[in-house]
Specification:
By secondary structure, the chain is mainly alpha-helical. 75% of the residues lie in helices and 0% in strands. It has a single domain (4-241), classed as Four Helix Bundle (Hemerythrin (Met), subunit A), CATH 1.20.120. It starts with a helix and ends in a 6-residue tail after the last helix.
Length: 250
């Protein structure tokens, strides 16, 4: 009898026990925020829809890609970050100018927790490719949501949307160009630019920051992100060309 289902049962069970309380807390917090800030009736359902979709993707990928028997504190932290991103995503379509301070604080907390999940994964010896991907996708969604909010609140022009769409365009291009699907080597530059991009968008949103200065910071962050993607693109193309180059005879 195969033992695979039993092996998978542990992380799935602990994941559910972790995700459900976070989901309930998110619903309660979103309901309170909707009442306090006078948000529309769509806010709470939108927040919970984004959170639920993220939870489904996590649970679907867990059995195949998570090699440990426990969901782990690191993934729980990333789940909490995902809940904060969902609360920000719910603000799309709302009167963002009225809640800029709230959005800035929530985004700041999500950014502050970014380094904690990786530290916890190493501390508990539960680091995995699944956790790294979960963290990366949460970061990508946070950047996209912050870019939308910056544009929606007129704190930056429509060009700021490129900050959030660039990675998804890169992934889409990989479906057409096979060499773009190859794994990239670990890069501190890539991690630093992602953090800088989040910080730049938070600065652009912050109501205490003059709008002109915030736009400049967001533009600088976008330029750094574009350069980082260009370097990765060049590496992938160069690596594919090297792999496909004919070997000369002796």
């Amino acid at each position: 009898m195969s033992m695979t289902p039993a092996v998978h049962q542990g992380p799935l069970r602990t994941a559910l026990l972790s995700i459900l309380p976070v989901g309930l807390a998110t619903a309660a917090a979103a309901g309170l925020c909707a009442a306090h800030f006078g948000l529309s009736a769509a806010y709470l359902p939108t927040v919970m829809l984004v959170f639920a979709l993220g939870a489904v993707l996590v649970l679907a990928g867990l059995p195949r890609h998570h090699p440990f028997g426990s969901f782990g504190a690191a993934n729980l932290t990333t789940t909490a970050r995902g809940a904060l991103v969902a609360m920000l995503a719910g603000l799309t379509g709302e009167r963002v100018r009225d809640v800029l301070a709230f959005a800035t604080v929530v985004a700041g907390v999500a950014a502050a927790l970014d380094g904690l999940d990786g530290w916890l994964a190493r501390r508990t010896r539960l680091a995995s490719a699944f956790g790294a991907r979960f963290d990366m996708e949460t970061d990508a969604l946070l950047i996209l949501v912050l870019a939308v909010l910056a544009w929606q609140s007129a704190r930056a022009g429509p060009w700021v949307l490129a900050s959030g769409l660039m990675r998804y365009a890169f992934v889409a291009a990989g479906r057409v160009v096979p060499c773009l699907r190859q794994p990239l080597p670990p890069s501190q530059r890539r991690k630093s630019v992602a953090v800088a991009q989040v910080v730049a968008l938070i600065v652009a949103l912050a109501p205490v920051v003059p709008a002109g200065y915030g736009r400049g910071v967001a533009a600088a962050g976008l330029a750094a992100l574009a350069l980082s993607f260009a370097l990765d693109l060049a590496w992938l193309i160069r690596n594919a060309a090297s792999a496909n180059a004919p070997v000369s005879g002796q």
